[in-house]
């Protein structure tokens, strides 16, 4: 359905060059969404997929094992959309204090994303409301170190930004003027708690509105993607932050940007929501499939180690660690997990012989080991 523009154009001047900034109308859309068969079916299908994801991850011995790595996969993908070159393997190496082949700023940026998600979900678990304050806190963590750290982390912008082009006058899109950002975000905060709109639909509408407001100088795309997961966790739709849309948006990047712009110029909210809900369904099903495959990998490798008898005892203990952290060093095993260096080395020899782990640096000293099949499964779509 086309409603026409979903906001007003306000004249602004940038270096004496007149142009127009877009100020969106408050949500929900007017006229109201058309709850025809298509949109209703998409909401139901996305809900079923989320239910399947919750069910499958509940079968894991410890859902936190999956969450640890899946959050990191999302961090890599979300940052890749913004142009970083870091891979999942490089992030895990970085967290083990091992050298990586990616630029330090790239890996730091991805590591910040992990910290921002963990901060947001921890605050919600403590009972902190989904609010502008929380969004600013999450953004502050996201840009705390490395690239973007000089661009007012945790603060709404006080200057004009734009998307595409070299200046507002030739930009593809110009968000609201800085003096209207707080009012726009205040309206969005009210909508986040409008429970007359189903959670999944509210998440889709809120994400599009956030990207239109573009309230920060940097990090808007990543913060807007985090907002989707935080809203669904806040509403209890997700028991754990396991839904991440970045792989879907990376694969369909041009469609994503086109639909966001069409919402602004033509009010095509239903078309945007069809796309968004398709992404939720596809992403949730992919995550459920990944969790099922990882569970099968864990069980098969565990059975293989049990067949070794006493020889496999220390390797089984190390296998428990690798399910939580699929890239590891002897130094970390000693410092964080209570291994002695001889026990860790003996267990790693067994795991290498069984083809469960491999050494990935080729060095004789400061070696790093990865859980081969686990990392291969998680890496799909990130390399």
Word description of this protein:
It contains 15 helices and five strands. It has 383 residues and is mostly helical. The chain folds into two domains: 7-289, Fic-like fold; 307-379, Arc Repressor Mutant, subunit A. The strands form two sheets. Strands 3-5-4 form a three-stranded antiparallel β-sheet. A two-stranded antiparallel sheet has the order 1-2. Helix 4 packs antiparallel against helix 5 (132-142). The radius of gyration is 23 Å and the shape is elongated. It starts with 6 loop residues before the first strand and ends with a helix. The model has no long low-confidence stretch (mean pLDDT 89).
Helix content: 55-70%
Low-pLDDT sequence parts = none
CATH superfamily of the largest domain: Fido-like domain
Alpha carbon gap, first and last residue: 38 Å
Beta-strand percent range: 5-15%
What's the main sheet like?
3 strands, antiparallel
Can you list the strand order of the major beta sheet? 3-5-4
Q: What is the 3D shape?
A: elongated
SS class: mainly alpha
Kindly provide the radius of gyration, computed on alpha-carbon positions and rounded to a whole number of angstroms.
23 Å
CATH class designation of the largest domain: Mainly Alpha
CATH topology of the largest domain: Fic-like fold
Average pLDDT confidence is 89
Note the run of SSEs as H and E: EEHHHHHHHHHHHHEHHEEH
How many strand segments?
5
CATH architecture of the largest domain: Orthogonal Bundle
| Overall tally of structural domains | 2
Annotation field: number of helices: 15
Give the structure's gist in a few sentences.
The chain is mainly alpha-helical and 383 residues long. Helix content is 58%, strand content 6%.
């Amino acid at each position: 359905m086309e409603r026409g523009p979903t906001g007003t154009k306000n004249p602004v001047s940038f270096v004496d060059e007149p142009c127009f900034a877009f100020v969106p109308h408050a949500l929900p859309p007017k006229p109201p969404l058309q709850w025809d068969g298509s949109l209703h079916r998409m909401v139901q299908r996305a809900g079923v997929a989320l239910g399947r994801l919750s069910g499958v991850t509940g079968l894991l011995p410890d859902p936190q094992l999956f969450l640890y790595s899946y959050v990191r996969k999302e961090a890599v993908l979300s940052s890749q959309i913004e142009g970083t070159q870091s891979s999942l393997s490089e992030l895990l190496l970085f967290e083990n204090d091992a050298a990586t082949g990616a630029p330090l700023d790239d890996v730091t940026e991805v590591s910040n994303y992990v910290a921002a998600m963990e901060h947001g979900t921890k605050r919600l678990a403590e009972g902190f409301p989904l609010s502008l304050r929380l969004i600013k806190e999450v953004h502050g963590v996201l840009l705390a170190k490395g690239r973007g750290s000089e661009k007012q982390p945790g603060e709404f912008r006080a200057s004009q930004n734009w998307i595409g082009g070299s200046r507002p006058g030739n930009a593809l899109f110009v968000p609201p003027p800085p003096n209207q950002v707080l009012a726009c975000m205040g309206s969005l905060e009210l909508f986040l708690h409008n429970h007359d709109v189903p959670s999944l639909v509210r998440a889709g509408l809120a994400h599009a509105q956030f990207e239109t407001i573009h309230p920060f100088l940097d990090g808007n795309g990543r913060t807007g993607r985090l907002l989707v997961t935080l809203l669904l966790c806040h509403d209890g739709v997700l028991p754990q932050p396991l839904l991440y849309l970045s792989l879907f948006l990376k694969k369909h990047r041009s469609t994503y940007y086109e639909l966001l712009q069409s919402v602004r110029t033509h009010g095509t909210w239903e078309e945007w929501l069809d796309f968004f809900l398709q992404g939720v369904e596809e992403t949730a099903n992919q995550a459920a499939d990944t969790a099922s495959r990882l569970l099968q990998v864990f069980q098969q490798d565990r059975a293989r180690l049990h067949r070794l008898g006493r020889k496999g005892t220390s390797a089984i203990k190390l296998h428990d660690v690798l399910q939580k952290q699929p890239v590891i060093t002897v130094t970390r095993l000693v410092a964080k997990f209570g291994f002695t260096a001889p026990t860790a080395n003996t267990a790693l020899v067994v795991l290498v012989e069984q083809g469960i782990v491999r050494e990935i640096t080729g060095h004789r000293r400061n070696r790093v080991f990865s859980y081969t099949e686990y990392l291969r499964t998680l890496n799909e779509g990130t390399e």
